[in-house]
Every structure is written in C-alpha cells, then in structure tokens.
Design brief:
Shape: globular
Largest sheet: none
Structural class: mainly alpha
CATH topology: Growth Hormone, Chain: A
Number of helices: 23
Order of helices and strands: HHHHHHHHHHHHHHHHHHHHHHH
Low-confidence stretches: 1-12
C-alpha cells in the first residue's frame, strides 16, 4: 500500500462526529492524568510539613522534590511497557489502563497517614505511590498524542496534537486553582493537617469518568490497518533501537526544552516565587493560574503555526527565544512588582508553547506507525525522567550552590541550546504521510 494512499484514506474514512469524540476523549483523559500528577507539585511546601517535618524548611522542600524526581525515574520503564502495549495491542487499551492506575494511585495519596502518626513509613508510602503515578503517566502523553495524530486530517495534525499539551495545562490549571482556593479558605494549620488531602480525593471520580469515555472510542484507523495487514512490529522496542535509534536521539534532544521548561515555568514557579522571592502563597498561585490560562490559548495558535510553517521552524523559534530572553525575564521577576511577575510568567508561558504546541505532532510524525507509541513514549519519558522531574530539585540546588536566584534561568538556557542542536539535525515532518 502506498504511503499517500494510507494517509488520505485515514483522514477520509473518519467522520466529524468520530473526530469530535476522539478530541474530547483525549482532552478529558489527559486532563485527569495531569491534574492528578500536578497537585503534588503545587502543594509541595505543605506536603513537606506532613511527611518531612523534622528537618529545616529547605531540606524538607528538597526531600519533597526528591520524591517528585524519583517518581520520574520509573517513567522510561513505563514508556517501554506502555509503548509495547500501545503498538502491539492498541492505543485505546493502553490509554484506558493508564488512567485507571493513575487515578487509584492519586486517591491513595490522600489516605497516607502523616509522619507524626507512622514515622518513616509515611515518606516511604508516598514514594511508592509516586512511583506508581510515574509509571502510569509514562503512557499518557505519548499515547494521547499518537491517538490524535493518527485520527487527524494530514494538514491539521499539529492543531489536533496541540490538544494534548492544552489538556495537560488544563489539568495543571485545576490543580493550581484548587491549591489557591484552599490556601485562601483554610488556615495554614488546617491546610497542613487535612486541607492538602482534598484535591487528591477528587482523583477517583474523575478517573472513572475519563476511563468510561476512553473505552467508548475506537482504535485509530492507521493502527487498525496495520493489524489487518499484520505489519505490526513483533517487538516495537527492539525495532526502535535497531532501525530508528537516530530518530530516538533527536527526539530526546528536542524534548529537553519541554522537560525543563514545563516543570520550571508551570510547576516549580509558585514555589520559586514564595520560597525564593518572598511573594505570598496565594499571589504565587494566582500568577501561575493566569500564566496557565494564557498558555492554553497560545498552544492552539502554535499548533496551527506548525501546520502552516512546519514543525522545525517553530521548534527552532522556541529555542532561540529561550536562549535570548530567559535570563532578562528572571531578572524582572526579582523587581518585587507583582504586575512584572504576572507579565513575565505570561511571556515565559507563551515562549514555552512554541515548543510544547509543536512537539506532540513532531514526535508522533518522527516514527512509523508500528513503533510510534514506543518511539514517542521512550524518548519523551527519558528526557522527562532525567531533566523534567529533576528540574524543581536542580533549580533549588543550583540557587544554593551558585548563590544566585537566576540559576533556574541559566538552566533553561542550557536546555534550549541542546534542543536547538537536535532540531537543526532533524528533517521536517509536517505534511508527510504517516509512514508504515
């Protein structure tokens, strides 16, 4: 079968209603997964008091972020497992399972007794559950992106895939809003004692809704064609390393800016503003919430731009803007003006969307259908494990080691340089058939 025939056949065979269901199913499922995952990051300072209360504040915070980072190290393993399930059994099966595991694990965090009640077992249980969360998250972003790209019309793959980072940010947004509302409504004592547990309890009902929607979707047309033709890779991971290792390396490099940028700008920032720059917790959450709202709007514009101008151009623009403007932006954060903080966060979020809105379609198009889920999941999770989950920890550590509050900015610049070099070596992927 010719490549072009496959691609046009895919877009022609799918009706508008089916596409709408796929878009909503992907949005809601991904939204639930990343709300579950993000709440921990936003409530890190409070959680550190519940699970690491014996040490001084910075050590407790580092311990909390270390647990955040360790949960990421399971993600490459999760990438291999979910990639294999997604490429061998089906995208839908992998996505329906991952949301169930994530929601159950998140719900369990709400039930862990504090350090005061069970001592060392409290942080140990927290770590185990975070590892389960990390394993589940490994299948989500890659699977949802592959699912959308394979359902999208060829000239709209960038826009469709942008639903994934938009829904991720929407999940973060709800987490940020809940954290802000709780810090407003409750006293610090109530927050430390039981308030932080409330968002985690939401995971169970939300997860069941997400799973219900996902099980009602059909697998993607190109995957079903592959099944019919019996062209599936017997071992997708082995195939990926043997024949597509160059694409894998380029993908890891391209993801680096996303990994560091996403977790520094959208997850670590409230902690940075309150702990390092002395802003109130409510102000810090409010600034991040506004930044997330504008980020969601910008992400769809980026998806459209990548369809119009190509993935490479937009990804190159993302790296260049970070190299030029990150350090000056962080300097403005330290002026003490809340308006400046708000504008800088919006600007940094907009810069990040140039990368984040383009990356899902770029990575999905980089690999052929029979190893698409594996290639995306392994590269994305490898970069996020080593550089994304560790970003809040490294940022906190660098500030102490370099004695400058600008340390996270220089870390972002370094990530942007690596991503730029990787994208410059890659070929343009937009408007090419989804090769078998």
């Amino acid at each position: 079968m010719s490549h072009s025939g496959t691609d046009h056949g895919t877009s022609g065979a799918v009706g508008k209603d089916a596409r709408r269901r796929v878009l909503w199913g992907s949005f809601i499922g991904n939204f639930v997964e990343w709300f579950d995952y993000a709440v921990y990051g936003y409530l890190a300072a409070t959680i550190s008091q519940a699970f690491f209360p014996e040490s001084d504040r910075q050590t407790a915070l580092l311990a909390t972020f270390a647990v955040f980072a360790i949960s990421f190290f399971i993600r490459p393993l999760g990438g291999f497992v979910w990639g294999h399930i997604g490429d061998r059994i089906g995208r839908r099966t992998a996505l329906s399972l991952s949301i169930l595991i994530m929601s159950a694990a998140t719900f369990c965090i709400a039930l862990i007794p504090s350090y005061a009640m069970i001592g060392l077992w409290a942080p140990v249980l927290l770590l185990v559950i975070r590892v389960i969360q990390g394993f589940s998250a490994a299948g989500e972003y890659a699977g949802a992106s592959a699912f959308l790209v394979e359902y999208a019309p060829a000239h709209r793959r960038g826009l469709y895939a942008a639903v994934v980072p938009a829904s991720t940010a929407a999940g973060l947004l709800l987490g940020s809003l809940l954290a802000a509302l709780l810090s407003l409504a409750l006293t610090p004592e109530q927050m430390a004692e039981w308030g932080w547990r409330l968002p985690f309890l939401l995971a169970a009902p939300m997860g069941l809704i997400g799973r219900y929607i996902r099980t009602r979707l059909e697998d993607t047309p190109v995957f079903r064609e592959l099944e019919n033709e019996e062209q599936q890779a017997h071992s997708p991971v082995k195939d990926m390393f043997a024949k597509h290792w160059r694409s894998l390396l380029l993908a890891v490099g391209a993801v680096l800016l996303n990994a560091v940028g996403f977790y520094v700008i959208l997850s670590y920032m409230p902690t940075y503003l309150s702990e390092e720059l002395g802003f109130g917790a409510t102000e810090s959450f409010f600034a991040t919430t506004i930044a997330l709202l504008t980020y969601i709007g910008f992400i769809f514009l980026t998806g459209l731009a990548s369809d119009r101008f190509g993935r490479r151009r937009v990804l190159i623009a993302a790296s260049v803007t970070f190299i030029l403007f990150t350090v000056p932006a962080f300097m403005l954060l330290d002026t003490g003006s809340f308006t400046a903080v708000l504008l800088v966060q919006i600007a940094l979020g907009a810069m990040l969307t140039l990368n984040d809105g383009t990356l899902p379609s770029f990575l999905a198009e980089l690999f052929p259908t029979r190893i698409r889920y594996s290639g995306f999941a392994v590269s994305f999770n490898l970069a996020n494990a080593v550089f994304g989950g560790t970003a809040p920890f490294v940022a906190t550590l660098l500030i102490g080691a370099m004695h400058t509050k600008l340390a996270p900015a220089w870390y972002l610049v370094a990530a942007a340089v690596v991503s730029l070099l990787a994208v410059l070596r890659a070929k343009e992927t937009s408007n090419r058939p989804l090769a078998h």
